């Protein structure tokens, strides 16, 4: 099994008080990054500070929104309810938000099936935060958590109702945009069971960009999500440069 599948299983077992599954050490050594210290209960973690060692950080989207990069020290602050107060109602103005409310080849927010489902989930709500929460919950509840080796598009994901973080993210972004909610894909590292795994999740605009995780059912996403790139699969390929190079020191 892949590191992501093991990571999700371990996260699920930790959340429900189960027993962690055995890990494939060979695969994990290639892809996972050990934390220098335990992070603890991420659900109550409001802030995380880490030092990123031994990797060239140039060109990555580490600074902005809830992340602040100073030298090689990265601080992540989980968004508060007060911070998630958008000043607009849905649908958002495409002239203001541009591509983050428009369809893309793999994010078919203009597909009739996607639009119909988005309308059912939203149910007439125009508050961006409430709509983001509803879509996040629906995707988390409706998709089977299973590793995938394809490049997903939102329509295929809606039909299959299964996949990993990429499928969850693609469908979330498509549904959000269909509802007129600015949304984008990001990728980086998420901490599970003491290690950082490569992971993808969405961000929605609620006065600033807010991280959410429909794969783990988190709104907002916990502070142990380290965003490295903004964008789809072409940007995610840049994460490969970190394998075997990046070392993470947890400062808290």
Layout of SSEs?
Elements: H1 3-16, H2 25-31, E1 33-34, E2 47-53, E3 67-70, E4 73-77, H3 94-97, H4 112-122, H5 128-142, E5 144-145, H6 154-160, E6 162-163, H7 165-178, E7 183-192, E8 195-205, E9 209-211, E10 225-230, H8 233-236, E11 247-250
Parallel strand pairs: 5-6
Antiparallel strand pairs: 1-8, 2-4, 2-11, 3-4, 7-8, 7-10, 8-9
Note down, in words, how this protein is organized.
This protein has 252 residues and is α+β, with helices and mostly antiparallel strands. The chain has one domain (42-187, 197-246): C8orf32 fold, CATH 3.10.620. It has helices spanning 3-16, 25-31, 94-97, 112-122, 128-142, 154-160, 165-178, 233-236, and strands spanning 33-34, 47-53, 67-70, 73-77, 144-145, 162-163, 183-192, 195-205, 209-211, 225-230, 247-250. The longest helix has 15 residues, at 128-142. The protein is globular. It starts with a helix and ends with a strand. The model is unreliable at 1-8 and 19-29 (pLDDT under 50).
CATH architecture: Roll
Q: Care to count the β-strands?
A: 11
> Mean pLDDT, rounded to whole units?
89
User: Low-confidence parts lasting 5 or more residues at pLDDT below 50?
Assistant: 1-8, 19-29
Query: In angstroms, what separates the terminal alpha carbons?
Result: 31 Å
As a percent range, the share of helical residues equals: 25-40%
CATH class: Alpha Beta
The CATH topology corresponds to C8orf32 fold
What is the molecular shape?
A: globular
User: Which strand-content bin applies to the residues?
Assistant: 15-25%
Radius of gyration equals 17 Å
Number of domains: 1
What is the structural class? Answer: alpha+beta
Q: Secondary-structure element sequence? A: HHEEEEHHHEHEHEEEEHE
- The number of helical runs is 8
Q: Major sheet, described briefly?
A: 5 strands, antiparallel
């Amino acid at each position: 099994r892949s590191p992501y599948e093991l990571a999700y299983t371990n996260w699920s077992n930790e959340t429900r008080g189960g027993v962690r599954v055995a890990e494939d050490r060979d695969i994990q050594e290639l892809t996972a990054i050990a934390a220098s210290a335990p992070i603890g209960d991420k659900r109550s973690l409001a802030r995380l500070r880490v030092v990123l060692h031994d990797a060239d950080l140039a060109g990555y989207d580490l600074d902005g929104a809830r992340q602040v990069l100073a030298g090689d020290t990265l601080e992540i602050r989980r968004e508060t309810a007060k911070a998630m107060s958008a000043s607009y109602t849905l649908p958002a103005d495409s002239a203001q938000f541009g591509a983050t409310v428009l369809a893309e080849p793999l994010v078919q927010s203009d597909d009739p099936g996607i639009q119909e489902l988005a309308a059912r989930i939203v149910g007439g709500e125009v508050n961006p935060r409430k709509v983001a929460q509803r879509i996040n919950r629906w995707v988390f509840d409706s998709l089977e958590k299973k590793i995938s080796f394809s490049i997903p598009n939102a329509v295929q994901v809606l039909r299959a109702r299964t996949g990993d973080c990429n499928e969850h993210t693609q469908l979330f972004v498509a549904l959000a945009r269909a509802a007129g909610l600015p949304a984008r894909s990001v990728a980086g590292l998420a901490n599970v069971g003491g290690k950082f795994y490569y992971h993808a999740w969405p961000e929605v605009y609620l006065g600033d960009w807010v991280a959410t995780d429909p794969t783990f059912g988190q709104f907002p996403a916990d502070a142990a999500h380290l965003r490295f790139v903004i964008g789809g699969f072409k940007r995610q390929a840049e994460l490969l440069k970190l394998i075997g190079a990046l070392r993470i020191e947890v400062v808290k």
